[in-house]
Design a protein that fits this description.
Layout lengths: L1 E6 L3 H16 L3 E3 L6 E6 L4 H17 L4 E6 H5 L1 H7 L4 E2 L8 H11 L3 E2 L23 E8 L10 H5 L3 E2 L2 H13 L4 E6 L14 H10 L6 E4 L9 H7 L8 E3 L7 H7 L5 H14 L4 E8 L6 H14 L3 E6 L17 H25 L4 E10 L2 E6 L4 E5 L8 E10 L2 E6 L1
Parallel strand pairs: 1-2, 1-3, 3-4, 4-5, 5-6, 7-9, 9-10, 11-12, 12-13, 16-18
Antiparallel strand pairs: 7-8, 14-15, 14-17, 15-16, 17-18
Helix pairs in contact: 12-13
Length: 429
């Protein structure tokens, strides 16, 4: 029988879809892409109202492709709005952000007994970490490992704490075991990911659990690179930097969410730092990693954001010189405090601010890339087109070399010679 898994949203969702695909494969099903299937899994996102609409569109598409198929709707949208899913009709299984590890069993139950299943449950503190894991995926050089679930931050614009529940950390031995299997299967790079990775271990009162986990993965033979997904600024302390800087496998790329350069806006967002705090964290990173790639997210047009507030964001982008900025126009999310704030910003103003920010961010990104010309970078090669082989440096810059060799999956040192748009070109040493 054929199974299609449709995924919306973040890297964590993608990881969970890969894990569910592996469960089906191990049970004898054929997991396919863009084919009419017997079972459809729609792994939903709810970060914006637009995400909800896209999730409903995916459900409609699955029902149209095969009206007789089993349809399971899982993930964040299901968790927040199970009643909306039920209203759609003809949905066999509704799961939130728990019980995905039972997906094969539940699909078989729905097929056999012709029953509808709704297992969405309230997310409580102290819940167990759901045992989803990956041993292989479609990317043969890099794999994500989910180490943490949930968020306790409650930023005023964000629905995720309600969709994912309180923080829950995965057992360290389980993470090490998954990383070991991935290494045995040929993966050289792992990305430790989660909903709020900086909270890893805090649900057990362990403030140093994240660095201890990183050090544990660093000891695994075969794993040659360790990356982190998005981090909160407050995790960056001198003791943390001292310890990771001693690990040869740790990659000097930090995605450190900023969201705004205005202290006024940060306070209304309920972020747990101000612009000065954030700047000091960047300075600390560069003290240990001078060529670090530092990427960030910035929201423009948050309710009440004045022209001066926006200029504060531009100033930080200009002064810090991020290697990349992900710019988002604020979109009110029903169910969050910010959606009810007064002084909502007009769409045209958001558009203009977004364009201005992107223009500046692109220029700073080019400056960062230019600063790497003449330097030696270690590249994990991933793809080949003709004689050009491309991969990523430790600081997450795309690099290509002209070579007739089959370098895919290998790590080589390259001296950078030039930049072509967002691609650096060099030669092997």
């Amino acid at each position: 029988m054929k199974v299609s898994i449709m995924t919306l949203g973040c890297k964590v969702n993608q990881y969970e879809s890969e894990a569910m695909a592996e469960l089906f494969t191990n049970s004898g099903y054929e997991v396919v892409n863009d084919e009419i299937s017997d079972i459809y899994i729609i792994n939903t996102c709810t970060v914006t109202n637009l995400s909800d609409r896209k999730s409903r569109q995916f459900i409609s598409r699955a029902k149209t492709e095969n009206p007789e198929a089993i349809i399971a709707v899982v993930g964040c949208y299901s968790q927040i709005s199970p009643e909306d899913i039920e209203k759609i009709g003809d949905i066999d299984i509704i799961l939130g952000t728990t019980d995905r590890c039972r997906i094969v069993e539940l699909c078989e139950l729905a097929m056999r007994d012709k029953v509808q299943i709704n297992l969405v449950k309230k997310l409580e503190p102290g819940k167990d970490f759901e045992p989803l894991e990956i041993t292989e995926n479609s990317d043969k050089t890099r794999s994500y490992i989910k180490v943490q679930e949930g968020c306790n931050q409650f930023c005023t614009y964000c629905i995720i704490p309600y969709a994912r529940g309180p923080i829950t950390s995965r057992d360290m031995d389980s993470v090490i075991s998954e990383a070991t299997v991935l290494a045995e299967n040929g993966y050289k790079e792992v990305v430790l990911t989660g909903i709020h990775v900086a909270s890893y271990g805090l649900d057990h009162g362990k403030s140093e659990a994240l660095i201890e986990l990183i050090e544990g993965v660093d000891k695994i033979p075969g794993i040659e690179r360790i990356r982190m997904s998005s981090l909160e600024p407050n995790i960056i302390t001198r003791p943390f930097m001292e310890r990771i800087s001693k690990l040869d496998k740790f990659c000097d790329h930090f995605h450190l969410s900023l969201q705004s350069g205005s202290d006024n806006v940060l306070k209304r967002m309920n972020r747990k730092y101000n612009s000065e705090d954030y700047t000091k964290k960047i300075e600390l990173i560069r003290e240990y990693y001078p060529d670090a790639g530092i990427t960030t997210d910035i929201i423009v047009g948050f309710p009440g954001e004045s022209d001066e507030d926006f200029k504060d964001s531009l100033k930080m982008v200009n002064d810090i010189g991020f290697s990349r900025v992900h710019a988002f126009r604020y979109s009110p999310r029903t169910g969050t405090p910010a959606a009810k704030f007064k002084d909502q910003i007009h769409g045209e103003i958001k558009k203009d601010r977004s364009n201005t920010l992107i223009e500046l961010a692109d220029r700073k990104s080019e400056e960062f890339l230019d600063s790497l010309i003449g330097k030696k970078l270690k590249i994990l090669f991933e793809t080949k087109a003709g004689n050009v082989v491309e991969g990523y440096s430790t600081n997450y810059v795309k690099v290509g070399v002209n070579s007739g060799e089959d370098l895919e999956g290998q790590i080589k040192t390259v001296i950078i010679e030039e930049r072509r748009e967002d691609l650096l070109l060099g030669k092997l040493l």
